[in-house]
Amino acid sequence: xxxxxxxxxxxxxxxxxxxxxxxxxxxxxxxxxxxxxxxxxxxxxxxxxxxxxxxxxxxxxxxxxxxxxxxxxxxxxxxxxxxxxxxxxxxxxxxxxxxxxxxxxxxxxxxxxxxxxxxxxxxxxxxxxxxxxxxxxxxxxxxxxxxxxxxxxxxxxxxxxxxxxxxxxxxxxxxxxxxxxxxxxxxxxxxxxxxxxxxxxxxxxxxxxxxxxxxxxxxxxxxxxxxxxxxxxxxxxxxxxxxxxxxxxxxxxxxxxxxxxxx
Amino acid sequence: xxxxxxxxxxxxxxxxxxxxxxxxxxxxxxxxxxxxxxxxxxxxxxxxxxxxxxxxxxxxxxxxxxxxxxxxxxxxxxxxxxxxxxxxxxxxxxxxxxxxxxxxxxxxxxxxxxxxxxxxxxxxxxxxxxxxxxxxxxxxxxxxxxxxxxxxxxxxxxxxxxxxxxxxxxxxxxxxxxxxxxxxxxxxxxxxxxxxxxxxxxxxxxxxxxxxx
Lengths: 263, 213
What we know:
The complex is a heterodimer. By secondary structure, chain A is mostly helical. Chain A has helices spanning about 5-15, 20-25, 30-60, 60-85, 90-115, 125-155, 155-165, 170-195, 200-210, 215-245. Chain A has 2 domains: about 1-60; about 60-260, no CATH class. The longest helix of chain B has 14 residues, at about 135-150. The interface of A and B includes residues 155, 157, 161 and 167 of A.
């Protein structure tokens, strides 16, 4: 087990933040207020999560755990659509289905097939693993949706040309789908390829600090990386495919109402 | 045959056409003219369902344009824009692009047919190997015409497709598209093209009006 941090130790960690704040003050960057606000938000959110998780692990009730997972998915979905510049109203349920499906598929595979805890719904595995997959897929989900729809919007004449040359909607969107998937997956491939050298991954570090043997921690890290990668690929594809009926009208014209008005 | 019945067309909150009619018979060579921004190009795009009508109906070969018929109608029409998008990196891939789609996969043209068509449009054989981004505007227009001809459609919508062509290439394109079996609805400012067309339609006061030659 890792050493528990006393209140004094925590104050020492907050004390470290004096360094960046002093830099901001000295250079008049105007970031002090935002930083203090972010620190406060992070503290409150993590205290709340700490409390939630404490009870969720204590109760170890599959329904409660799944409800918490559902809340995480809804927040992740809303944030993905917002960051991709797309309207929640038209796409919410479609992208939620994609994010939920892809996350549950891989976390289920990891827990049920590989880890096999007893009981199988053990909250200590279910909640953090789904949370990690969701969090790590968020950026690539944003990237794939944003790249796909902005690609079609920028090249609408080219897209219409494909339709005119006899392409079905799925055939006409394929070049933009390819671009979007590459954009979403390339960073993950790079992360996988440099893992352990450029960065020490969070899950592994956490487990080692928690007292696990490095060799044990590595196995979990490899497992979670494959879950994240698979989930990213599945979500990037299904997000786009499931959103098509809402994003195009019955004449295969792009429905511009899906975009947030330009900021 | 293309029939416009009581059509109203809006763009950017401006009325371009209001409750107007036009009938184009098989084999007609129609040219639309009028000042820029009066709705000529938009009218062409309406026929392929790229721009919605505010009111009225369009019929193509007796099929009323709707969600159910749009694929069938697009299958009968070749549309060539003013600055055609080739949609592939290499010219050969662009030319054969339609044959990568399920609808045309079984109608791959023979190499001989492609070569002959290129020759008729005054395009050299080497152009197929070039990157699409490196060919001139006039070559792009002729590749788009060749691609449309390879699909063996009978209705052509052509939007200023001779704007970047030299006189010789223009004659070649005119020769191909003014064949008796082709129904042509075009937009052009080119005097020779307009001269060749057998029907001239002007957009005046939001109406489509036939002008006498």
